[in-house]
């Protein structure tokens, strides 16, 4: 089958999440036909899976300006910009209306299984850049299709590929066979069945980011409830506790994000969770009652737990891009031009330099990884970062290089200094209270409404 002329083809956008839909909106504004391919049954399928979790960004920070313009003629009402939406709110009151406005430019139930150049595998150079991209997909009914594209924007995120609990980046021995008691998501304790699973139980929470803070706060709220007697959290940290362990606190320019860490500190200080530091999970065993026993690389064994909530981050799925020539950092799996700007081994205070199409480019011209996927394994991605990314990328695809290069982005600081490399050294306080760094956050009491905030994977 001969491929049609490249200029006549759509730009394929992989993923109908917030960043993918924003990319499609910018393409429409530029007069370029987008085709959004979403594996799930609805737009925002991944966001809907954490519908119960509240974002730590406000509505004013998670609505793309170009999308708002597209939605305006439809009668869409913009939520109050200072309010904090849940994942469900974001999906139902923004992502779904935006997908509806884009109409048949969004195809759901369509899983991308491969991307390449038409008639050229990874090793072929001849006329490579003149060939359109070819995207293989599988529909929900099992049918396979081939779609040609002038460019590809991969906004598929990282939600489907959580990092395992094992301290070496691999699943701990026994982890795969213990999945009946392990989840890699923040549990929805408002769901009666899920609530019953954790009520009165001892639950290990592995991780040190916003998702772990959220899970600890949820479990503490359950322990305080009339029906929650005996509920206990065990917070497993791979590093020691320092002033930065609980986030930036009041120094965080996103107040709700800072409050998350304080909520986790409250859970520990009030006795609803105990912290285990310097623990890198090596093995997951079972006791005679079927409960899980976590064993560290240094041989330490924890008392049995009923459940494990592993919230150690996410990583990109690059399997369907194996025929594309990507330029990725060997550590973060982020674009080489972007990686130094977001590397948690070097980055401090959560600041990210402005970046756009140049930092997101690859040796294979015309393909871009954007949104959470562009960060690879790095944390602290924000929706506003992705919105600016796709504005720049789409301008570059449209040939407006001046606009594409004119990237302006200022992100809120976390109030936390030091990189992950420093964090792995045990129990020494890294900050010197100079520059942007904050002292250890003070303990405050938080209501339920303010403790349940967004996970790091939510891109908010």
Describe the structure.
With 460 residues, this protein is of the alpha/beta class. The chain is 24% helix and 15% strand. The protein has helices spanning 18-29, 45-48, 59-62, 65-71, 87-102, 192-198, 210-224, 255-269, 339-342, 383-397, 401-405, 420-423, 448-451, and strands at residues 11-14, 34-37, 106-107, 110-117, 133-139, 144-149, 151-154, 182-183, 202-206, 232-236, 273-276, 281-286, 292-296, 307-310, 367-369. It has a five-stranded parallel sheet. The protein has a five-stranded parallel sheet with strand order 8-14-9-10-11.
Question: What is this structure's SSE topology?
Answer:
Layout: E1 11-14, H1 18-29, E2 34-37, H2 45-48, H3 59-62, H4 65-71, H5 87-102, E3 106-107, E4 110-117, E5 133-139, E6 144-149, E7 151-154, E8 182-183, H6 192-198, E9 202-206, H7 210-224, E10 232-236, H8 255-269, E11 273-276, E12 281-286, E13 292-296, E14 307-310, H9 339-342, E15 367-369, H10 383-397, H11 401-405, H12 420-423, H13 448-451
Parallel strand pairs: 1-2, 1-7, 2-3, 7-15, 8-14, 9-10, 9-14, 10-11
Antiparallel strand pairs: 4-5, 5-6, 12-13
Helix pairs in contact: 1-5, 1-10, 7-8
